[in-house]
Amino acid sequence: MFHPRCPNDAAAVAPRADYWRSVKPGFNRLDESRVGFSAISLARLPTSIGIAYDSPFWIVGMLTLTGIVVGLIIRYSPGHAGPDPAIEPLISMPVSPSALPGLLLALIIGLAGGVSLGPEHPIMTINIALAAAFGSRLFPRITALDWTILASAGTIGALFGTPVAAALIFSQTLSGSNDIPMWDRLFAPLMAAAAGSLTTSLFFHPHFSLPIAHYTQMRLVDIASGAIVAAIAIAAGMVAVWCLPRLHELLHRLKNPVLILGIGGFILGILGVIGGPLTLFKGLDEMQQMAFSQTLGAGDYFTLAVVKLAALVIAAASGFRGGRIFPAVFIGAALGLMLHAHVEAVPAAITVSCAILGLVLVVTRDGWLSLFMAAVVVPDTNLLPLLCIVMLPAWLLLAGKPLLAANRHEP
């Protein structure tokens, strides 16, 4: 009745799903801690001393202090709070477990203080390290590479709600053997990603989708409009690609992480004053507030996109521990809403989804994740064929272009 490979597939899937179900509640508590600290730092504490939470003095002071504290953690904690996300890919080799407490603390303080980065890179680093350290002991038959793929797929599925994309990301990594069908190789990562996504939906309810009018019917002109929007988003992202390595090199000439992150926090505070509270934090909740707002116009959306893009570059160049995908989604949404407000004939579903596709493609250089992130934020099945077509010119525009990453400097 069953295929001979079924027992092997089941044996491989079981520890992966159990592992992710066991660690995901801990990361939900991490996010709850971040939310709690955020409420204290930017709501309760300033009002208790008679200062408005959106006061320029408070925003600049809070982000500067956040930078100094994170700098102290990076300088003095074991392992220096893990690798610098600006010079490391999203998925990399496991780090030493001794660096994880400092990394976790730097992540919580940075995100709670309003730094414009997401949690994906540190959480990915922590999950890979834990999977490699404990998984290889509990299930020695599963290799370190398999545990890395498990942790990465589960994290992507949980954070972004895209289990299919999480599995497809590894389609090239797992394509070495011609004897095993592709589905068999992707089945275990898919189950790990699905377990992570399901656990997130049970313990935590992220809201990616925006209240955007339904896209009713595809027209040929919409394909051209979507390609233009994606090209504009890519052009904006390439500005960040040019700035990040140069600013990273300039700041790290100071050598002292406390000084570097203190200066970075101060600049982020100034940007927060210019852009307002919507440009702070990772951008997921702020994206919802922006989309629901009835008072923002094209100029406001443009300001939000520019300030958030600048804050992303500053935060990454300074060495704050965080990821760049969540801010990129916010920037894409702001840019898409701005383009729709400027040219109302182009549906908002097209401008927002294609702008997110372009920005995430610049940041990740991964077509699957970019495509599914756009589809998650604007969940409309009528858009999928259009997004797939728009992906082609967007991918060709980025062919051979540098990544959004800084260069590794010699100490």
UniProtKB/TrEMBL annotation:
UniProt entry tagged with the keyword Ion transport: yes
Membrane topology type: Multi-pass membrane protein
InterPro entries documented for this protein: Chloride_channel_YfeO, Cl-channel_core, ClC, ClC-type_chloride_channel
The UniProt record lists the keyword Nucleotide-binding: no
Bilayer-crossing regions: 57-78, 98-117, 149-170, 182-203, 223-245, 257-281, 301-320, 341-363, 383-404
GO molecular function: chloride transmembrane transporter activity; monoatomic ion channel activity
Top-level taxon in the UniProt lineage: Bacteria
Location of this chain's protein in the cell: Cell membrane
Family annotation (Gene3D superfamilies): Clc chloride channel
One Gene Ontology CC term in the entry: plasma membrane
Family listed: Belongs to the chloride channel (TC 2.A.49) family.
Xref: PANTHER family: CHLORIDE CHANNEL PROTEIN CLC-E, ION-TRANSPORT PROTEIN YFEO-RELATED
HAMAP family: CLC_YfeO
Protein name: Putative ion-transport protein YfeO
UniProt organism field: Salmonella enterica I
